[in-house]
Design a protein that fits this description.
about 150 residues, mainly alpha, Four Helix Bundle (Hemerythrin (Met), subunit A), 6 helices, about 0% strand, globular
């Protein structure tokens, strides 16, 4: 069972926002641990981009999984469930699962953030979420979606 046209439109809008967020992350260039720990505006921007990428992906994952009558139990599980529904490759699902944990750290433990781990998350997001956008767009195009990702 695949998402209907209205749901696909929502999913395309989420993908476009993810692409914009990745562009903003790229504009920051090579962020340093010092910048993250001493420049609040940089830290907040990076943290918000990382959490939004995960939130948007989980919303898409949940949309696809919900079409089968199931609901992912956790953010992390949504990537596994999305792989089972053919939205993502197994490799990408495994690659993106840790981003759900980083999102939880950024949202709930913001006073105890390990910026070295955030730097790793930035790098992982740049590659992993670009692949995510590509794979989801491909999935939508094979389910007769009328929306488009745009440039």
């Amino acid at each position: 069972m695949t998402p209907n046209a209205a749901e696909q439109g929502v999913m395309y809008r989420r993908l476009r926002m993810m692409r914009r967020l990745l562009g903003e992350l790229d504009k920051l260039g090579d962020v340093t641990e010092h910048q993250l720990s001493h420049e609040l505006s940089i830290s907040l921007l990076v943290e918000r981009i990382l959490t939004l990428l995960v939130d948007l992906a989980v919303a898409i994952n949940t949309h696809v999984v919900a079409a089968t009558g199931k609901t992912p139990e956790t953010y992390r599980a949504s990537f596994v469930d999305a792989e089972h529904e053919g939205l993502l490759t197994e490799e990408l699902a495994k690659e993106l699962q840790p981003s759900a944990g980083m999102r939880n750290v950024l949202v709930h433990e913001y006073l105890e953030i390990d910026y070295a781990k955030v730097l790793l998350a930035i790098s992982a997001a740049r590659t992993g979420y670009r692949s995510y956008v590509t794979q989801v767009a491909r999935y939508l195009s094979t389910t007769n979606a009328k929306g488009e990702l745009g440039e």
